[in-house]
Amino acid sequence: MSNCAEIVAMLSDYLDRDLPPDTCAVIQNHLEMCPNCGEAAESLRKMVSLCRQYATDKRPRPLPADKEQELRAAFERVMAHMRKGD
Asked: How far is CA 85 from CA 44, 50, 59, 62, in A?
């Protein structure tokens, strides 16, 4: 498993630690060696973190502009990397 598309497809499970340790080690090694996948992982991590900040029943409306821009930018980076299909 060294294909960037395979790595990106497993990022969510990797970040949630829902994969076997040996698979996580392979992904971690790939992320350290591949700047594009490393950036995709960091963008996804940030996007999830931002979503969790506002995961309460009483979400602020509207989302503060700076947080919306951060969330949108993180999402766009992940989507651009996935479309690229390295």
From this structure: 16, 25, 34, 34
Q: Report the largest interatomic distance among the alpha carbons of the chain, rounded to a whole angstrom.
A: 42
Between the CA atoms of 34, 13, 68 and 42, what dihedral angle is there, to the nearest 10 degrees?
-20
Residue pLDDT tens, the chain, 86 long: 568 889 988 999 999 889 999 999 999 999 999 998 998 899 888 888 887 777 666 655 777 888 888 888 888 888 887 777 54
Could you tell me the pTM of the whole model? 0.62
**3-state secondary structure at position 62:** coil
How many whole angstroms separate alpha carbon 51 and alpha carbon 29? 27
Q: Which two tokens stand for residue 57?
A: 């029943």
